[in-house]
Structures are given as structure tokens and as C-alpha cells.
Amino acid sequence: MHLEIKVIKDNNKNEYTHIKLPSPYLEEEINEIVGTDCYSIQFNKSIKNKVNLSIADINLIAERLERYDTALVEAMYEYTGCLYETFVCLEEYRYQYKSGVSSLVEVAEEMVKLGYLGTNDLSEEVLRYISFDKIARDLDAEGWKIINNIAILAY
After folding, report:
1. Is 45's pLDDT higher than 50?
2. Environment class of 62 (CB within 10 Å of its CB; exposed 0-12, middle 13-18, buried 19+)
3. Rounded CA gap, 72 and 84, in Å?
4. Do 17 and 6 meet the contact criterion of CB atoms below 8 Å apart?
5. Who has the most CB within 10 Å: 52, 93, 101, 111?
6. What superkingdom does the record give (predicted)?
């Protein structure tokens, strides 16, 4: 996941510098850019900061998110719409996901065949009577979403 902030000097709003996160020297880099000037921070459009987080908090979250698969982090971020909520869901294992799928029907088929919705020893004759479309609608109603070929549910 690409995280980036823009440091803007208050005395010259047109001057800015991008700093990519994570960086253990973030505060030091900001001080080198602005010196003793006042400054403000703007996040790139991909970072939605619904929770009031400090730069240090965001830097820590970015460092911790590096432990996870990038595709999973990006899908979770798109699902939650918030960097902090993404972090909490991943850290507290408050999610389910299945990668390599393009529809909830595929997820429904996989769940039935693996026995997540009951027994997993159904014959092909019985499987053809199961409406995977209806199970997919139930998954959608529960909150499952397909994002970049990842089926994801956060709770």
C-alpha cells in the first residue's frame, strides 16, 4: 500500500515535499524541511484518516502494515475506507478473506465444497441442486465484497 504525506510550510503554501511512509526518521525529516516554520500535513487521496491520528501513529501503522500481504492490505483499506480501521481489523484478526476469486458465487462454491456451510461430502448429484447464486446473495448481505480478486469480510 502506498502511503504518502505532504509537508506544507505555512509561509509558502506552494512549497511542499513528499515523504513516503514508513520511515523511522519521519519527525527528523519534517524538521529538516520546515525548520522552525509552522507546517501542516496533508495525506494523499488514498489515505483517509477518519480517526484523529498523529504523524507518529500513522508512521507506526504503516510500519506494522508492511507485515501483511500488500493486496490484502489494499483490499481491506478499500473495504473499510480508513487506515486505522484497516489496521485494527488486520491486527485483531477481525476479517475473513479468500484470494483469487472474481465473484461471490465462487466463494459460495468453495465454502460449500469445503464444508463451511455444513458437510463437505456432498456428491456432484446433490451439488447441482444447490443455488450458489442465493448463497452469494446471502454473503453479500452479510457484508462480503470482492475487491481486486479478493473476497473479504471485516467485522
Report:
1. no
2. buried
3. 15
4. yes
5. 111
6. Bacteria
Q: Which residues pair with 30 in a beta bridge?
A: none
Q: What is the pLDDT of residue 66?
A: 80
| Cell numbers at 135, concatenated | 448463497
108 residue type, one letter: A
Contacting residues for 67 by C-beta, under 8 A, at least 6 apart: none
* 3-state secondary structure at position 154: strand
For residues 111 and 71, what is the distance between their CA atoms, to the nearest angstrom?
22
Torsion of CA 79, 66, 85, 48, to 10 degrees: -80
| Domains along the chain with CATH numbers | 1-69 (no CATH), 94-155 (1.10.10.1190)
- Specify the pLDDT at position 62: 76
- The SS3 call for residue 6 is strand
63 pLDDT above the threshold of 80: no
